[in-house]
Amino acid sequence: MTVPNEKALASPSPGHGLVAFGRMIKFSHSIFALPFALAAAAMAARATTIHFSVLLGVVVAMVAARTAAMGWNRIIDRHIDAKNPRTETREIPSGKISLKVAWAATVLSIAVFVGAAAYLGPLCLKLSPVALFFLLGYSYTKRFTWLCHVFLGIAIAGGPAGAWIAVTNSFGATPAWLMLAVTTWIGGFDILYALSDMEYDRKAKLHSIPARFGIRTSLVLSALLHAVAFAALVMTGITAGMGVAYLAGVGLIGGILIWEHSIVRPGDLSRLNMAFFTLNGYVSMAFLAATLLDIGIDSYGFIPLPMG
Predict the structure, then answer these.
(1) H runs (alpha helix) in the chain
(2) Alpha carbon distance 294, 308 (integer Å)
(3) N or C: which end of the chain has fewer CB within 10 A?
């Protein structure tokens, strides 16, 4: 069985400063969650007005939350990463970033997140401890439950929910369906990513769906979660009154998810990086593009075909 290895992707020379920290927290992976938050803000703004400062606040909160979560994860998992051949070259185990710097950046990110939440309104501030519970708590879940993938999905799904609340100061069916979509989408592809650590997790007595159920069952469960995600995206559009452009975008996302599962096979996991990063990046960007296009068509006076 062939699996991707982070060693092969690591820089041959030590990283420095912001570049090394950005690599440690995988800043580029912000492409997964941020487009969903921006799309949620755009949907919410259809029934009200949205100021640029609020949109900026959502972006700052999202980036800070993700930075805090990844920084915390790398700190908490540093001993595990050091023993795993796939992750031993990560910045803290390899000494490219000191533990002191990692802690400082993580604490600062938490402070920025809470500050951004306070700026976005009282409800966002009240809910910020809940968001931090899931964002930081995820790092511990693989120590006791194979449901860690779903926990991660819930943590990231708080982004679009928070964006909706920031714009409307309320909650409802649309953000609830979108949360379910993001939770199951993230959980599904995190199962695929965890396949690369299946054997190590078993030896280290860490919990994950691959370690508990094996490759074939993991692929089935991942596909089922993505089926739920697809259905939840359709329901998001129905409850939000979106039109044909949105529906076409969700159809495209369904095709991408099918493609993702077609390239990951029980005997060959060599394309996990493509399935994990590239194709899921397409999913998030397609969702944002379809949402903005649908809203744009509606705003310019054209009548999109109603979804329900």
Answers:
(1) 6-9, 17-24, 34-44, 52-76, 78-83, 99-120, 122-141, 148-168, 173-194, 198-204, 209-213, 215-240, 244-262, 272-273, 279-299
(2) 15
(3) C
pLDDT at 28: 56
For 187-226, what is each residue's pLDDT tens digit?
999 999 899 899 999 999 999 999 999 999 999 999 999 9
CA atoms lying within 13 Å on the CB side of residue 48? 13
List, as own/partner pairs, every contact residues 203-210 make where C-beta atoms lie below 8 angstroms and the sequence separation is at least 24, other chains included: 204/80, 204/83, 204/84, 206/80, 206/142, 206/143, 207/141, 207/142, 207/143, 207/144, 207/145, 207/146, 207/148, 208/142, 208/146, 208/148, 208/149, 209/146, 209/149
Q: Which domains does the chain have, with CATH numbers?
A: 16-135+144-295 (1.10.357.140)
Task: Say how far apart CA 298 and CA 76 lie, in whole Å.
Answer: 47
* Distances in whole angstroms, Cα of residue 37 to Cα of each of 59, 202, 237, 270: 8, 35, 15, 31
265 forms beta bridges with 268
> Taking the alpha carbons of 185, 69, 42, 35 in that order, is the dihedral positive or negative?
negative
End-to-end CA distance of the chain, in Å?
46
Listed in sequence order, the residues at least 6 apart from 192 whose beta carbon sits closer than 8 Å to its beta carbon are 218, 219, 222, 260, 264, 272, 275, 276
Please give the share of the chain, as a percent, with pLDDT higher than 90. 66
State how far the Cα of 231 lies from the Cα of 250, in Å rounded to an integer. Answer: 9
Q: How far apart are CA 223 and CA 189, in angstroms?
A: 9
Question: What CA–CA distance (Å, rounded) separates 127 from 45?
Answer: 20
Strand, helix or coil at 268? Answer: strand
- The encoded tokens of residue 175 equal 């953000």
Q: How far apart are CA 186 and CA 209, in angstroms?
A: 14
Give the Cα separation of 143 and 128 in Å (integer): 24
CA dist 178 and 173 (Å) reads: 9
